[in-house]
Amino acid sequence: MNEIMAIGVGIGAGLAVLAGAAILSWYVFKPKTVPTYGPVSSQIAILFRNGIVVDSTESAADILDRTFLNGVSWAEIKEDLSEQFPDLPDALPNETKTYFTEADGETTLTLTQQNDSVRLEIKSQPLSPEQAFEFRRKESRNQRLEAAIETSPNPIWEMDQKGAVIWHNPAYAKICKDTGNTVGRDCPFELAPPTTNSPRSSRVSLPCDDGSRRWYEVSSQPYNFGWMHFACSIDNLVEAEMAQRNFVQTLTKTFAHLPIGLAVFDRERRLVLFNPALVDLTHLPVDFLSSKPNLLSFFDHMRENRMMPEPKNYSSWKEKLTNVVSAAREDRYCETWTLPSGLTYKITGRPHPDGAVAFLIEDISAEISLTRRFRSELELTQSVIDCFSDSVAVFSRLGVLTFSNSAYRKQWKCDPDSAFAEITIVDATKDWQAACEPSPIWSELREFVLTLRDRSAWTAQLALTTGEAVQCHIEPVAAGATMVKFTIEERALIKESQSEIVNS
Asked: How far apart are CA 475 and CA 473, in angstroms?
């Protein structure tokens, strides 16, 4: 009996092991299901009643990026779908209408009247395995692009051919809010209607609540059936331009009162700035100067007006002008022009930043005339003094020999014009002392010439080593100078005797 029970227990255990192995084998080698792409099971549908959403599928809320749709108006749904379906009507239709996307003709939106309700349904062809793979491959890149657009500080928006805004990024919405504009199909940027289908750039401004204006540079690119616009803030650039304009106006007002003519040429050698004195000095028409002539044309007109020396060889004039510009850029150009009219102009070239060159034209006719008159008077005075037989020397208040006649140079064998250094009263008294007998007047004479107090003329008798008697007359003259005159006594006696004969 015990043996029969043992055999039965063994058979039962074996059958249990076989059953467990069979179950395990079936679980391990059970075929895995492979996902396939077919029609989407969940529908994209929204139900409206009186223009308000009363029911919707879960996928409809997902594609519109909303938690729920109940209570949302048709206007809001239309705005969310206008990017893909720009032709949606402002009001729900009373009949069945089908709309297609601009991207492809396979995705449709159908509005169907159902009793007192309107059903919106979106259908599209299912993705093939190839399309699904391509979608996932580009998904990461698209996410980065979307993040770049969403976080961009510059406004970006798209407009259709009618000028309505059909898409925008958050920066655009922020600009609308900051400037008091409503985010909608109307654009706050006042852009001129495009005349051609080519990229263009516009500078526009938006008023702010505080009365100021924001300036933007808007780049417009044709895109699909509309335009894509990119705005970049240029407030700093506009402020810099205004500051530069104000600075130029200030300079212009300042230069307007200068008697010196100013002509500034840019790096392209175009006249960009001039003052009224230039018109008066060159006699060039204002309309010609305002037309921004080049450097060659400017000097050609001056030559035609005889306001510059006539070049001896006009064929080399351009080459000379090139040298003039090069010298002006190196700050080493300065010439004096003597005009046929008798006027004298001083022309100076100065380098300016960014390759510009400025020419200063100054009328120095009065200065030259005064210099010539002064020189003529000096020559006349010199010729008159040279006629005197007495030797005369004039020393400045600093004791420097500034004037002497021919008799002085001959008597004392001194030529101040050919001397390497200035001749002082100390040098002169040494020469005089060497040619005369000892006398105590030399230190007194030096002190008299260099003193700054009030002085009186005085006379001293000297004797030359040759035996001649000399009368030295010292007299203060203008500007603190001192005149020293030497007269030989024999000549003085002859003159006295001649005057006595005449009187008798």
From this structure: 7
Residues 6+ apart with CB under 8 A from 117: 47, 48, 49, 54
Q: How many CB atoms lie within 10 A of CB 33?
A: 6
Rg of the chain over CA atoms, in angstroms? Answer: 53
Predicted TM-score of the model (pTM): 0.46
| One-letter amino acid of 43 | Q
Strand-by-strand arrangement of the 52-56 sheet? 52-56, 44-49, 117-123, 108-114, 97-100
> How many other C-beta atoms can be found within 10 angstroms of the C-beta atom of residue 259?
11
Q: What is the pLDDT of residues 450-498, one digit of tens each?
A: 988 889 999 999 999 988 899 999 999 998 999 999 998 765 444 444 4
317-329 helix and 295-304 helix, angle to the nearest 10 degrees:
120
Residues written for the chain: 504
Which DSSP state fits 210?
T
Going across the sheet that includes 333-338, the strands are 271-274, 261-265, 357-363, 344-351, 333-338
3-state SS class at 150: helix
Beta-bridge mates of residue 351: 357
Q: Is 357 exposed, middle or buried (0-12, 13-18, 19+ CB in 10 A)?
A: buried
CA atoms within 13 A on the CB side of 186: 4
Most distant CA pair in the chain, distance = 205
Q: Which of 424, 419, 289, 413 is nearest to 359 (CA)?
A: 289
* 258 vs 128: CA distance, rounded Å: 82
Residue for token pair 């938690």? 67
Residue 54 in tokens: 């009363």
8 Å CB contact between 425 and 450: yes
Three-state secondary structure call for residue 172: helix
Dump pLDDT digits (tens) for 308-339.
877 666 566 667 777 777 777 777 888 888 88
Torsional class of 65: left (φ above 0), alpha (ψ -120 to 50), beta (otherwise): left
Cα angle: 377, vertex 382, 386; to 5 degrees: 150
Report helix, strand and coil shares of the chain as percent, to nearest 5. 40, 25, 35
Instruction: For residues 74 and 119, give the distance between their C-alpha atoms in angstroms, rounded to a whole number.
Output: 11
Count CB neighbours of 225 within 10 A. 10
Q: What does the alpha-carbon distance between residue 474 and residue 213 come to, in Å, rounded to a whole number?
A: 82
Burial grade of 236 (CB within 10 A; 0-12, 13-18, 19 or more): exposed
- For 220, the token pair is 């417009």
Decide: 204 and 218 in contact? Cβ < 8 Å: yes
Tokens 């079936």 -> residue: 26
| Cα separation, 486 vs 392, whole angstroms | 7
Could you read off the pLDDT of 92-118 as tens digits, one per residue? 988 898 998 876 667 899 999 888 899
